[in-house]
């Protein structure tokens, strides 16, 4: 069979098509070459985002570390302060001490805590008994002061046993009324304080004075009493009252009689 012959028109069309294909490929290559530089822009932006996130994480990490360090230091400081407070807790108590000294220019002062079997018990007891007798028998014109001295929260109450104070409290109103209405005043002078085994003998001289009297009434009295230490109930003594009777001194028996003869 005879081979078909191609006409010039077909060849020219085919050649045109063949020429068009390389043109398209060249255009695609040009487009790809133009679009390729956009890829580095995306990678750089992603790197910037990663670096910003990493910076934030590092910042949070350093903040957390700093907070942990500050918390640890604060905890250590608080522990040290707590230990210091625990060591200072015994200093909140008011504890009396006995000072023994002599009337000399150069001397050694002896300081010892008070106890039930202390060697200077007689000296302390005598001083406390003198104070108690003066508080109980001295009278001044100031009603408020006398009410405080003899009242339920006064020094006489804290230096007396409940039985002794209740017995004395029955006569307080009469004495206060005489002081207020009659203007009675009384001065007390202690002659001697002597111990006889467990009983103390106190001799006093009183001078009772009234506004209309020309001379005071002088009397001599003998007082018998016994004392004890550390007799206050710990449940009764409050923290605010710890200094009213730090020795625990209390008169548990008191009797007075005339000694004019």
**Treating each run of at least 4 consecutive H or I residues as one helix, how many helices?**
7
Distance between the termini: 184 Å
Q: How are the strands of the largest sheet arranged? A: 3-4-5-6
How many β-strands, per DSSP? 6
Which CATH class of the domain at 119-258 applies here?
Answer: Alpha Beta
SSE-based structural type: alpha+beta
CATH topology name of the domain at 119-258, in short, is: Nuclear Transport Factor 2, Chain: A
The low-pLDDT segments are 1-17, 19-40
CATH homologous superfamily designation of the domain at 119-258: VirB8 protein
- H/E element string? HHEEHHHHHEEEE
Relative helix content: 40-55%
Mean pLDDT: 78
For the record, the CATH architecture of the domain at 119-258 stands as: Roll
Gyration radius (Cα, Å) is 53 Å
**Residues in β-strands, percent:** 15-25%
Shape, principal axes of CA atoms: elongated
């Amino acid at each position: 069979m005879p081979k078909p012959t191609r006409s010039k028109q077909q060849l020219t069309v085919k050649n045109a098509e063949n020429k068009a294909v390389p043109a398209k490929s060249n255009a695609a290559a040009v487009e790809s070459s133009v679009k390729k530089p956009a890829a580095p822009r995306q990678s750089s932006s992603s790197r910037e985002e990663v670096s910003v996130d990493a910076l934030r994480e590092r910042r949070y990490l350093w903040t957390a570390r700093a907070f942990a360090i500050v918390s640890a230091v604060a905890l250590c400081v608080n522990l040290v302060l707590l230990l210091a407070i625990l060591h200072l807790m015994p200093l909140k108590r008011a504890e009396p001490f006995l000072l023994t000294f002599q009337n000399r220019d150069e001397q050694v002062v002896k300081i010892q805590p008070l106890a039930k079997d202390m060697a200077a018990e007689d000296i302390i007891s005598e001083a406390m008994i003198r104070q108690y007798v003066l508080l109980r028998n001295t009278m001044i014109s100031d009603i408020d002061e006398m009410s405080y001295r003899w009242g339920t929260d006064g020094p006489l109450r804290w230096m007396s046993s409940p039985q002794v104070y209740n017995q004395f409290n029955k006569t307080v109103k009469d004495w206060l009324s005489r002081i207020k209405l009659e203007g009675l005043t009384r001065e007390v002078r202690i002659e001697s304080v002597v111990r006889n085994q467990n009983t103390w003998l106190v001799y006093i001289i009183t001078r009772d004075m009234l506004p209309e009297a020309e001379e005071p009434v002088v009397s001599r009295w003998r007082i018998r009493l016994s004392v004890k230490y550390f007799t206050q109930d710990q449940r009764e003594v409050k923290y605010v009252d710890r200094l009213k009777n730090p020795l625990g001194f209390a008169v548990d028996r008191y009797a007075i009689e005339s000694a004019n003869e």
